[in-house]
Amino acid sequence: MSSVLDSLTPVLHGLLGRNAERVLKTSPAFITQAVGSLDVCEVRELMVQLDTAGRLYTLGAQPLPARVLRAAITGGGLARPNEQNLKVALDTDVLTAQRSTQYLVKGYYSPTECVRLATAVSELARNMYMYAGGGELGLKLAEEQTRMLFTVEARDQGPGIRDLDLILSGGYRSRTGLGRGLLGVKALLDQLQIDTKPGLGTRIQGSKAARKT
Amino acid sequence: MPLADLLTSAARGVHSSRIKGFTRIEAVLNQVENFIPVLRLGPSVFVSVPAELSDSQARFLQETVSHRLSKADGVRGLVIDVSALSLIDSFAAKILGETASIASQFGVKAVLVGIRPAVAMTLIELGVDLRQVETALTLERALTKLKIRIVEVE
Q1: How does pLDDT run across A45-68, given as a tens digit for each residue?
Q2: What are the structural domain ranges in chain B?
Q3: Cα–Cα distance, A41 to A28 (Å, whole number)
Q4: CB proximity A90 to B under 8 Å
Q5: H or E stretch including A210?
Q6: Closest C-alpha among B42, B139, B4 to residue B82
Q7: Which of B126, B129, B133 to mutate to test the interface with A (most CBs of A within 10 A)?
Q8: CATH label, B38-145, candidates 3.40.190.10, 3.30.750.24, 1.10.10.60, 3.20.110.10
Q9: Most buried residue, A66, A172, B6, B65, by CB count within 10 Å?
Q10: Nearest CA in chain A to B16
Q11: Is the pLDDT of residue B16 over 50?
Q12: Cβ distance of B126 and A188 shorter than 8 Å
């Protein structure tokens, strides 16, 4: 597979003429990677850089066509499905988890869905921080043939969840939260799977799909 | 890790907990940013909830509000502005509910104002009940609920 640099060079030459070389020279090092292999963050960084350079060399006359550039970078598809693994140990990590989720799904899910997903992830992260003394959070956005799939996995080595059935039936109120965290997460996501053993920690996996736009 | 690398990684959206030492810096920054704007408006106090609510910020919010209300004289109402808050999970909802209860301990009625549409929808699905907290769509209606009228003077 050709590199991003190879597919971007002719496009930029067509748009900027000789100035294309200068733009490419100042581009981030990762543009030598294969087409379609950049992750969401990298594509965004490159797009911003090209946009700035485009304005500079066309003297602001017209911005470079983002759609064409993006296609050259990603090979027409979505940027590589992004994944993020976070450690949850401090209270600010919960906020990081919220932010990461919104960053990950932004543009692929509707704004309301983004808030829903971030809230669900926040509940899971907060649970780990408050009750399990921290843990790990895996966020993943994958592209399937007809849909986008967001999955979240929360793992901890905490005390486990005791009255799981009671909690899921809605008859439980915790001392600190509203006692509805998990129930809420279940409502916000399509699917939720909870594996827990007293004293051996908890593993919660959930997912939500969205139609491709 | 050199500072330049640290900043680059931060700028690229690589998140804090992955980078050693970065969490500490973030914690310090957080301390600096721990500031809750509280304004007096006639017989009411207006408090803005920050865009994100961590545990420590939530505690700080409650502390600030209770401190202000205990000192202030002739305050009837507390307007809690949540329009900046990007999401309300069950924890944030609990904090807001508690803040309202704290206010009522001082004989002050609390009104929540400016919940975003997406946040409102999420709250319903989450099964969080904010009914014990008075809410209003706009600041004007919140003030009406607190029986405060704004009069224009020529």
Answers
A1: 888 888 887 777 776 666 677 777
A2: 3-33, 38-145
A3: 12
A4: yes
A5: strand A201-211
A6: B139
A7: B126
A8: 3.30.750.24
A9: B65
A10: A96
A11: no
A12: yes
